[in-house]
Amino acid sequence: MMGTKNSLKPFLQFLTVITFSYFRCGFCSSLNTDTINSTLILRDSDTIHSIGNQFTLGFFSLNGTTTARYMGIWYYVSPSSVTWVANRENPLHDSSGTVTISSSGNLILMNGNREIIWSTNFTTSPSSVIINTTAQLLDSGNLALREISTGNTMWESHRHPQNSFLPTMRVSHNPRTGARVDLNSWRTSQDPSLGNFTSGLYAVGIPQMYIWENGIPMWRSGPWNGRILTGVTGMYSVYVDGFNVANEDDGTVYFTRSFRQRFISRNILNASGVLVEASWDEDLNNWNVTWTAPANDCDYYNRCGAFSVCFINDLPICNCLRGYEPRNRGEWGRGVWSGGCVRRTPLQCERANNATDRNREDGFSRLSLIKVPDFMQWSTGVETECESLCLRNCSCLAYAYDPGIGCMFWNETLIDVQRFSASAGSDFYVRVAYSELVDERNNRVAIIVSVIASLFVASICLFLAWWMCKRKRKNAKSAHGNGENGVSGSSEIVLRSDMDNVNIEELPLYSFEILANATNNFDLGKKLGMGGFGPVFKGKLANGRDIAVKRLSAASGQGFDEFMNEVVVISKLQHRNLVRLLGCCVEKEEKMLIYEYLQNGSLDVFLFDKTQDVLDWRKRFNIIEGIGRGLLYLHRDSRLKIIHRDLKPSNILLDDNWNPKISDFGMARIFGGNQDQANTGKVVGTYGYMAPEYAMGGRFSEKSDVFSYGVLVLEIISGRRNTSFYSDEFSLGLLGYAWKLWNEDNATDLIDKRISDPNFRTEIMRCMHIGLLCVQEVSKDRPTMSTVLSMLSSEIVDLQVPEHPGFTDRWSRTHVGSSSSSNAPSANNITHTVMEGR
Ligand SMILES: *[C@@H]1O[C@H](CO)[C@@H](O)[C@H](O)[C@H]1NC(C)=O
Ligand SMILES: *[C@@H]1O[C@H](CO)[C@@H](O)[C@H](O)[C@H]1NC(C)=O
Ligand SMILES: *[C@@H]1O[C@H](CO)[C@@H](O)[C@H](O)[C@H]1NC(C)=O
Ligand SMILES: *[C@@H]1O[C@H](CO)[C@@H](O)[C@H](O)[C@H]1NC(C)=O
Ligand SMILES: *[C@@H]1O[C@H](CO)[C@@H](O)[C@H](O)[C@H]1NC(C)=O
Ligand SMILES: *[C@@H]1O[C@H](CO)[C@@H](O)[C@H](O)[C@H]1NC(C)=O
Ligand SMILES: *[C@@H]1O[C@H](CO)[C@@H](O)[C@H](O)[C@H]1NC(C)=O
Ligand SMILES: *[C@@H]1O[C@H](CO)[C@@H](O)[C@H](O)[C@H]1NC(C)=O
Ligand SMILES: *[C@@H]1O[C@H](CO)[C@@H](O)[C@H](O)[C@H]1NC(C)=O
Ligand SMILES: *[C@@H]1O[C@H](CO)[C@@H](O)[C@H](O)[C@H]1NC(C)=O
């Protein structure tokens, strides 16, 4: 069946082209070239094709008559899909138009009277200088006018976008000069002249995409966080969607789409101001719409007025934020929302210093899956700081946190807040007066009272369960001899030093009460940070031992799988470079893991905070080696084969001697016997540390851990976060930047200033070399962990030359316009998955 279909396809395509050509321009003749030069004159009946037959350039009319002829570019497979029009404001009225290169080197379009009706208009600096150029139609759909002798591009259609946003094209904004390049719509679908809609990037502060109607915002994408536009549903990552924001030295920030897709897809701003993404279905010979914006009522900018939130599944769709009420109830009730909402109870900080209110500080009400409001201010910082920064300043109305951005604050108004039902948005915290929170608490009390009866019944069950547990534990205890000595104070704790044969039932159990006492009732002041599935607290047992308690947030209902996964994985492991699990607590609604406490916290703090100066090169090398040993143990030396899948600096803990210990096994996978590669539908992990084949195809193996390890090594050497945002070299990413320096023989520029002692130069360079070997794009080129350790210890002296690292080509190729096929991802179904996701 496939055979018949395939052999028919070229024939059908041929037919389409022929039929179309006939309607388009009578007897089109395709010139056998992709380039217009000074001796070639393109007539109305001629077309040229890009070398891979992706795009065609020629003359066309839009409504079947010959009354208005345009010169432009369209998809070879879909001639009615025009991507760019030269004379959009100036149609020809007959078929006498010609295109050629003028004596000044410009590409010109002339009518039958040899009058120039359109020209590329580039000027040379002394205008008398005459240069020879050719105009080439590239497979990216870009028409590039280049100087022959130097190859310099004098003009290109991709820098003058119209309604189509093609891969490698850019829309841009320069916050310093205000210069911008936007998409602009056609007037109607039959009339390519300038319409009322534009779409582009606004890059003052955090970059966001907009659609404007006559300059007034109509849709907003939410802030770019270095990975996705946070207010767009179903966006996954730079690597998969291909969208990216980057900047140039002159301050221009641009939004682009890399050339990753193997299938044909297009994004256009259509004549009604809707951004439409569609992919070409070869079998149906038609475009399949995969995503649109705005897609529903709530997507329209500021649909509900200020201080309200729009949720398409609510009825009515608009509601005031907590602590706010409609400005005009009558209007609001009639569905006129433009008036928005106003604050119901003044904030404590707004009232004159009222002594009786001292203990009634304002608080925050949390909303999840939110497209955060427009006009944000931001600062770097970690999640826990955002709240106190906002609380301290009375003009702060709300805050939000995104790991790629930091803290975001709002001080004037909260406009265009939208809630999603899944897979988009951020957590958003609105400041409210204490009394508004009290309401919430009272409600909670009421609920608690109402369930007390059922709790009574439950407690009887619990007692029975506890009694049985206790018996079981006693049995276990006697079976394994005495509990560890030194565990005075509580008979509840059973610690065992030999963790080798532990399984879940045998894992020491801690009571909730003991852990609550140890952590001062989970005092927020004792919070160490957030683990994979919940907060981590520092605690001290009655015997003086420090512990770290990771608590699965009972309320969220999430993370149970990760919790169980972590218990299963880590209870079977023991190695000096893996964090040690001491026990667990599964009681009532509570699920907690108890770890040894590590004095120095996580690696990211010391590595990325430039004011920290403790990690000299010796310590860093020790850390690189230690992590390597821990990984090797996971991959090879333990009886199981384990892939960690989420290796990053915040998951590396440091003990008091600065020895690294790998933690957070919530996402780790155990491989059976001789299996060494697996697929997963759900890609988990952290952006920036994931190997390309995993991020894009969901395939993971020990080589994907090796990739993360390589990123980690480069971060340790550079002291810079791979995902760092708004940095000078952002447009390359750490890997691309390292690769660039390496090839330019400037690799020493990467070295963190804090470890720039020339005595270590050679060793650091060797580590960088190893790091680059680990992040190579093709997974089978990457060394195994045992090879890495041999290289680190110089057992292996001669290192291979590293190949191109993963995820960098899109940066360097942004406007080269070469064919995509050579570097297309090898995972063959991911492209479709992604498209469907949007
Ligand atoms: C212009 O292109 C035509 C067709 O490809 C070719 O025959 C001709 O030699 C070219 N002229 C110059 C000056 O390159
Ligand atoms: C560009 O060319 C047009 C004619 O097509 C002319 O009217 C216009 O002044 C030129 N613009 C510049 C900046 O040279
Ligand atoms: C442009 O081409 C002409 C003839 O092909 C040649 O005489 C002239 O030197 C060229 N000019 C430059 C700047 O290359
Ligand atoms: C075709 O489009 C041109 C330009 O927009 C317009 O002048 C002409 O009337 C249209 N013809 C028909 C039949 O719609
Ligand atoms: C564009 O906007 C102007 C001003 O709002 C309006 O008069 C005009 O009809 C609009 N054009 C189209 C094609 O909708
Ligand atoms: C623009 O796209 C939207 C969504 O696909 C569609 O409903 C609308 O009709 C389109 N407008 C035009 C003028 O094609
Ligand atoms: C396009 O849509 C049709 C019908 O909805 C579907 O059968 C087909 O698989 C889609 N093609 C692509 C390439 O998404
Ligand atoms: C101080 O608070 C009390 C009770 O909340 C209130 O009755 C009083 O009016 C407040 N005083 C001022 C100056 O706001
Ligand atoms: C409070 O925030 C506003 C705007 O965010 C800022 O202008 C002001 O300086 C801040 N005040 C203090 C005391 O930090
Ligand atoms: C909000 O912050 C901006 C920037 O700091 C400042 O210019 C503006 O005046 C502030 N607005 C209010 C109401 O505090």
Automatic annotation (TrEMBL):
It comes from the Eukaryota. CDD domains: B_lectin, PAN_AP_plant, STKc_IRAK. It catalyses: L-seryl-[protein] + ATP = O-phospho-L-seryl-[protein] + ADP + H(+); L-threonyl-[protein] + ATP = O-phospho-L-threonyl-[protein] + ADP + H(+). Residues 33-158 form the Bulb-type lectin domain. Belongs to the protein kinase superfamily. Ser/Thr protein kinase family. GO terms for cellular component: plasma membrane. Keywords: ATP-binding, Cell membrane, Disulfide bond, Glycoprotein, Kinase, Membrane, Nucleotide-binding, Serine/threonine-protein kinase, Signal, Transferase, Transmembrane, Transmembrane helix. Residues 1-30 form the signal peptide. Residues 349-433 form the Apple domain. The keyword Transmembrane applies. PROSITE patterns: BULB_LECTIN, PAN, PROTEIN_KINASE_DOM, PROTEIN_KINASE_ST. It holds the Pfam family S_locus_glycop. The chain crosses the membrane at residues 445-467. The keyword Transferase applies. Its EC number is 2.7.11.1. This is Receptor-like serine/threonine-protein kinase.
